[in-house]
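If your schedule permits, I should be very grateful for your opinion on a structural question. Kindly check, if you would, that the fold set down in the C-alpha cells agrees with what the sequence suggests. Thank you for your consideration; the sequence and its C-alpha cells are set out here:
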Amino acid sequence: MRPEALIFDVFGTCVDWRTCIARELAAVLPGADALALADAWRGEYQPAMERIRAGNRDYVALDDLHRENLNLVLGRFGLAVPDRDGLNRAWERLDPWPDVVPGLHDLRGHAIIAPCSNGSIALMTRLARHAGLPWDCILGAEIARDYKPRPGVYLASCAALRLAPESVMMVAAHNDDLEAARAAGLATAFVPRPMEYGPDRQSDLGPAQDWDVVASDFPALSRQLFG
C-alpha cells in the first residue's frame, strides 16, 4: 500500500528518551542513579494519562503531567532539584535514533508525515526543532484532548488531515499503539527499537501481529512503501 500520510509515535519510536532523560538527570543530580530515575519518571507516564482516559480527570497536557510526575519521583527518591521546570523541559531535548531524520526525509518525499504522540503541540514542536524532525504538521493528543490508545486520538489526526483512516499509516515501536490504531481503521507499520528501555528490555522486541509493514528502520520503511 502507499499511504497518503504517515503518523508516528515519538517517544521510543523516533527518539531515545531513556538515554537523554538519564543524561539530563545526571547533570543536575550527579550522585543519583540516573537510569533508575529516568525509568521511574517514565513509569508514572501511563498511570497519569489513565486517570484522564478513564474520565477521572479533565484533559491535562503532557508537559504538566510530566512536571507532576517529576515531583512524585523526586519525593520518592528523597531528592531535591532547585529548577524543576528546567529539568522538566528535558523532554523537549531528546535525541533521535540515528535512522530517524534521514528516514523521515525519505518518507516526506512521498507522503505527509506528522507525529501522533501523547506529547503536547508545544512539546512536539520544540522537540522537532531540537532533533531536526521534519514534520509537515503536529497532530496527536492535544487536538483530540485525550490520550492514546483511545481511538479518538488516531481519528482526530486523520480528520485534521481530511483523510480517511485507511489512507493513513500509524508507525510505532509499540504493539499496543498499533493494535489501537488498527482497531480505529488505520494501516500499521512496526519498527522495533530494542534499546528503548536498555539491554534488558522484554517487550516489543518484535511484531505481535501481522502489521501491514514490518521494517528494520525508517529508511527501510520508506523503501518498502515507496520503492
Observations:
- The chain has a mean pLDDT of 97.
- The chain has two domains: 5-16+95-226, 17-92.
- The first helix runs from residue 17 to 28.
- The first strand starts at residue 5 and ends at 8.
